[in-house]
């Protein structure tokens, strides 16, 4: 490109259009091209309430460092058509420095985007595609967006070659990418004359360290397999279905089984049965499915059968907003079962951490013979990111099992650790009854007070006494002003803290990975010297704040910043909140 443009640490691009226009494919290939050019990146999917069909957009942020959050606005909105794209106006924030490209043959750009002051560059993309027989308009869009972002044409075309599955049309679409790149150069020259071209990436050489491109749902599946899961039963539900789609062919290659159940009730009971038989087992669902699994999770608690439930949170309540993210299942996960039913709740801190956190969850479930709920969310689950290759933490399924003909075998023996050997069905001389009734140490149903209290204490003790090590939370900094977050909120919080530091404000960050059971001693150490505390989360009811107040003694009363989805948390709004909090403290 001949026009001189400014360099930027990150560039944000939105590709939009109606369902079937190929914007998600173009976005995915653009992300892959960024990785080939040595950049990092994040791609977030958004769609209308219909889940399939209708309007859709791929929102990307490409940069020179790992991306865990979208930026506050977009440098480019490129719309293949305008079918209801105006519905994304709150998500795709434009300003006077932004560029707006649309096909004039598909109608005029919505006024809501024009009113932002963005510079409009109409381009007949569908006509361009028709002039190249066999080409697709989304490849024109790929060449446009990638070139405006500063990616070399050769890299864009290499990414297309790697992704293309129809050899007969490959050459035509490589030409389409080149045509889009040429049009981008002309648009950039025009923008320079109008006051300045769009900023471009600082593209460097790709380092020797391997990088992966994956979604949180894919990382979750890999973490499950690394942890030792060999049976999965689940019912498809947005936004968790990709966990199952990724696992299906891969678990079979490892000798495992994935079964699509008729509903969520069946799936949870199937994995309880598989685990009872000695096979580490998992299901994946979202909020409505988790609600249906409640009674069976209580059975897993009472019978001490290890299972892992992945909950990819979405907007609620009820059917809610299936394709949007919200951290609003936390209260249900930590306290939603009837009776005193202790369970573990683990929350990945990023797309990459979906791998490690799930692997750890499998290890904990098996070691402690208890159900584990993993709280991912739509933002992490369905977004794709370029990340440094995650380190294998080595967590594997290790269950304490009973040996054959163990003298005086009692399945629920009251051991000092609370964990008692679990007999695998068919093992000689160690048979026992496992059901949801309260029982004696031998597993015989009992309504006696002594047995009930003993088993309640045992089930609680094995979780609270376990040494979870340093992985329970990520603790960064030692400033007296402390921010606490979990899950996908940690990405924009980290960026807001970095911006605050640039303004002279030092903040400490605690990102919780283990939500339940509570870790009072570890939290007290993490908060040592704290004089100000704020809890940041994405839900309407300040669920994390209320949970922490219930279980932890804070050195000072904490404050709360919370708001619901579906809009993702942005670094600028969090920076404003953090500055106001500290200035008012």
- Second rung of CATH, namely the architecture of the largest domain: 3-Layer(aba) Sandwich
Helix percent reads: 25-40%
The biggest sheet, with number of strands, parallel, antiparallel or mixed sense and barrel status, is: 8 strands, mixed
Number of H/I helices: 19
Can you give a write-up of this model?
With 585 residues, the protein is an alpha/beta fold. It has four domains: 7-201, Pyruvate-ferredoxin Oxidoreductase, domain 3; 213-388, Rossmann fold; 400-466, no CATH class; 472-584, Rossmann fold (3-Layer(aba) Sandwich). The chain contains 19 helices and 22 strands. Strands 7-6-5-2-4-3-16-9 form an eight-stranded mixed beta sheet. Helix 1 (23-36) packs across helix 5 and helix 16 (490-502) packs across helix 19. The longest helix is centred in the first third of the chain and has 24 residues, at 170-193. The mean pLDDT is 95.
Structure at a glance:
With 585 residues, the chain is an alpha/beta fold. The chain has 4 domains: 7-201, Pyruvate-ferredoxin Oxidoreductase, domain 3, CATH 3.40.920.10; 213-388, Rossmann fold (3-Layer(aba) Sandwich); 400-466, no CATH class; 472-584, Rossmann fold (3-Layer(aba) Sandwich).
Keywords:
585 residues; alpha/beta; Pyruvate-ferredoxin Oxidoreductase, domain 3; Rossmann fold; 4 domains; eight-stranded mixed β-sheet; seven-stranded mixed β-sheet; 19 helices; 19% strand; globular
């Amino acid at each position: 490109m001949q026009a001189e443009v400014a360099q930027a640490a990150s560039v944000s691009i939105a590709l939009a259009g109606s369902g079937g226009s190929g914007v998600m494919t173009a976005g995915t290939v653009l992300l892959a091209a960024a990785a080939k050019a040595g950049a990092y990146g994040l791609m977030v999917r958004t769609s209308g309430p219909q889940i399939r069909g209708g309007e859709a957009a791929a929102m990307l942020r490409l940069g020179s460092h790992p991306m865990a959050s979208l930026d506050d606005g977009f440098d480019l909105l490129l719309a293949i058509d305008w079918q209801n794209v105006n519905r994304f106006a709150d998500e795709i924030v434009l300003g006077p420095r932004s560029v707006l490209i649309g096909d004039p043959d598909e109608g005029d750009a919505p006024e809501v985007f024009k009113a932002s002051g963005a510079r409009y560059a109409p381009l007949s993309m569908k006509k361009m595609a028709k002039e190249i027989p066999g080409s697709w308009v989304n490849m024109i869009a790929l060449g446009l967006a990638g070139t405006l972002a500063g990616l070399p044409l050769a890299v864009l075309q290499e990414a297309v070659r790697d992704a293309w599955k129809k050899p007969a049309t490959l050459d035509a679409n490589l030409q389409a990418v080149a045509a889009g790149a040429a049009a981008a150069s002309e648009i950039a020259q025009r923008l320079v004359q109008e006051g300045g071209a769009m900023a471009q990436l600082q593209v460097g050489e790709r380092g020797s360290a391997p990088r992966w491109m994956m979604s949180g749902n894919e990382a979750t599946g890999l973490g499950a397999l690394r942890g030792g899961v060999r049976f999965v039963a689940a019912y498809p539900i947005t936004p968790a279905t990709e966990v199952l789609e990724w696992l299906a062919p891969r678990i079979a290659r490892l000798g495992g089984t994935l079964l699509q159940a008729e509903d969520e009730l069946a799936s949870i009971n199937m994995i309880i049965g598989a685990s009872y038989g000695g096979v580490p087992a998992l299901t994946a669902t979202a909020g409505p499915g988790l609600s249906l699994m409640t009674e069976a999770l209580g059975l897993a608690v009472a019978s001490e059968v290890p299972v892992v439930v992945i909950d990819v949170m979405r907007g609620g309540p009820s059917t809610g907003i299936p394709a949007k993210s919200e951290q609003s299942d936390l209260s249900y996960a930590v306290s939603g079962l009837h009776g005193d039913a202790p369970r573990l709740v683990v929350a990945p801190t990023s797309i990459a951490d979906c791998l490690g956190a799930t692997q750890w969850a499998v290890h904990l479930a098996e070691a402690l013979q208890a159900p584990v709920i993993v709280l991912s969310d739509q933002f992490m689950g369905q977004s794709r990111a370029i990340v440094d290759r995650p380190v294998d933490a080595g967590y594997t399924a290790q269950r304490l099992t009973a040996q054959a003909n163990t003298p005086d075998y009692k399945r629920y023996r009251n051991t000092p650790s609370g964990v008692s050997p679990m007999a695998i069905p068919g093992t000689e001389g160690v048979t026992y009854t496992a059901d949801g009734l309260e029982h004696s140490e031998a597993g015989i149903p009992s309504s006696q007070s002594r047995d009930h209290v003993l088993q309640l204490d045992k089930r609680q003790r094995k979780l609270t006494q376990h040494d979870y090590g340093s992985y329970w939370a990520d603790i960064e900094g030692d400033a007296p002003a402390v921010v606490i977050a979990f899950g996908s909120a940690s990405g924009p919080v980290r960026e807001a803290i970095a911006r605050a530091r640039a303004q002279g404000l030092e903040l400490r960050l605690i990102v919780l990975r283990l939500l339940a059971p509570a870790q009072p001693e570890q939290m007290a150490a993490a908060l040592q010297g704290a004089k100000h505390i704020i809890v940041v989360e994405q839900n309407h009811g300040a669920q994390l704040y209320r949970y922490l107040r219930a279980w932890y003694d804070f050195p000072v009363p904490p404050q709360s910043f919370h708001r619901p989805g579906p809009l993702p948390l942005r670094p600028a709004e969090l920076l404003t909140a953090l500055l106001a909090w500290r200035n008012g403290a």
